[in-house]
Amino acid sequence: MNTFFTITHQDKNSRARTGIIKTGHGTIETPVFMPVGTQGTVKSIDQDDLRALETEIILGNTYHLHLRPGEDLIAQFGGLHKFMHWNGPILTDSGGFQVFSLGNNTRIKKSESNVGETIVDVQKKHIEQGKLVTIDEDGVTFRSHLDGSTHRFTPESSIDIQHKLGADIIMAFDECTSDTADASYTRAAMERTHRWAERSLSAHQKFEAADYQRFLFGIIQGANYKELREASAEYISSLDFDGIAIGGESIGYNMAATANILDWVNPFIPEDKPHYTMGVGYSPVDLFTVVERGIDMFDCVAPTRIARNGTLFVHRDINPGYKININNAQFRTDPSPIDPACSCYTCETYSRAYIHHLFRAEELLAYRLATLHNLHFFLDLMREMRVAIKDDNFLELKKTWLG
Amino acid sequence: MNTFFTITHQDKNSRARTGIIKTGHGTIETPVFMPVGTQGTVKSIDQDDLRALETEIILGNTYHLHLRPGEDLIAQFGGLHKFMHWNGPILTDSGGFQVFSLGNNTRIKKSESNVGETIVDVQKKHIEQGKLVTIDEDGVTFRSHLDGSTHRFTPESSIDIQHKLGADIIMAFDECTSDTADASYTRAAMERTHRWAERSLSAHQKFEAADYQRFLFGIIQGANYKELREASAEYISSLDFDGIAIGGESIGYNMAATANILDWVNPFIPEDKPHYTMGVGYSPVDLFTVVERGIDMFDCVAPTRIARNGTLFVHRDINPGYKININNAQFRTDPSPIDPACSCYTCETYSRAYIHHLFRAEELLAYRLATLHNLHFFLDLMREMRVAIKDDNFLELKKTWLG
Q1: Does residue B272 share a domain with residue B176?
Q2: What is the ipTM of this complex?
């Protein structure tokens, strides 16, 4: 009997479901959007803001926290929860994604904008910059993006770091291959990722019981090859993980591919474990796409990152793309809130004109107000979805939102 | 009977006094430190933060708000209070200080750091940059630091802009001469400032009663010339202003000179009007210096500006200069709050190590937490001072703080 995850309702008309994840730092209602706090802070807001937003869980990035301030310092403080004063659940990634994306992998497109650059351009640039990562059977050697120093992650060291950080949910160490890799490389990488998954699991199981339990998720890879995705789903599902993640360059970034991949892997993954798509949430539409396919958890830097550029989520009646750019001149004199249907602090307090002014004047308050809005917008949509699923109304809600 | 300002207690052992200023947006207990919200926001914090800090009044800068977003837009929103959603008292400066300091005046040293530059260097640079301001009897022509466009302030236009901004307390338009100016220029400028003071008063009196009263302060100039300061104090005090400000390059920037100037003008200024030193508050010491001399109001960008560099106020037992730089390596592993004797949100919640990490990682949260601390530190010291004055213990409190 898995008390970590309980499905509370299965939608009658789709694979969408609601559930409860129990951790030593509180309970998470799923499906859940998880704000990203890369360096021990969700950029521009504080931990009281997170609580006021009713954030259920946040992410930390193992790669960044390992480089600065270091897992040993954080462990000295009793773990990331205490270091950053966030007493709710935390999930840490394995560091693999950043190693590759800040190294020589094309997935840099996912985390940085390289408009107009081809994959070859990016690879060349990285090689010139000496950012090349070296993958071998045992692990990955890479350079710090901060100071160029050389570091090495293995499945064992990644799990060790994550235990030191003390996240409630930790991730197996994987290689997230580029979508441009051929089938043969993708298969080899996937098989290595499977061996790393077993090693991650075994390293994790060696840790003695701590004051609260840490749960380990495995990650399905295989890029956009159906056969590989199925094989990976089957293999990862066969191991004793607490949850199943679906990774890859396309996930979240190419939603058509994401939908296909989720449909491919669905028959192979256990229903009674949480399903997590890594990097989903560029737009409200994306959340519907994955929730409809039985996904319980997802995270993305987009809502907070675009907020800091002045790109703010709105309902479809305001903009069919669900976004406005508050820097636009049309908002200079606009007394309305960002979205009149939004109940966030920013919308209940400040006008578009004021926020426009703050962005134009490059005032720091702009970034906080925008971040609060975008996060509230997503978290509120998740609350709406959970209610709808419980009422078997998920597809109706989707129709209301997407038309 | 002046109901705008009431002295509630006069310290028996110094000129320090407590008082109450009544405005249409609430009551201010004096002596009061006024945080600066240059562009319609106190940098990095929001208006709820200001309320949580028990901020009694904030400043707005006429020069900046005139250039962006413009007083007409703000008037369209019903004034600065409504535009920025701050319902407490607001004071606006006349724009004069910025015109001169962002123009060709050496007082730029006060608002920008030009380490190693001589006054001549700064003047040359400004002339090369075409930033020269032109002063004539009627007013000042200057260029915008944003786009180089030409603008003009006169006493009448400054008062007009301030009425449009809708501040509760507004300032007469003055010329803040450089301390390097000779006695003859300083006298001429002071006399012009006196004529501008009369014109400001007359422009102000032409406005019809609004939904709340705006109060006008005159400004004493005269640089570091005793005779001029006395003459200016006598003249400004003879006019029907609601309060008396003491301006000048030295004020706040050179505290020995500030103390002298305050002692010179003291016999000439009316006791029953609020006394305001413009630009005071680089250090806790400075607050004692002016309060001891009967000053009721002061403002300074320093607490918020240095906060964003990681310079944080502490009590003397931690550092004899009342400041630590949280970027220093010694704080990397330090679990204590910034100042264990401080009860601000930052100190009650986060460690020096965490704030050090945020600054090193250039995380936006760093600036907010540091700003909240420095403002609380000053506002709390003011609360301590007011209690001490009421108990005739001001000099004892000063001794406790300064040794």
Answers
A1: yes
A2: 0.93
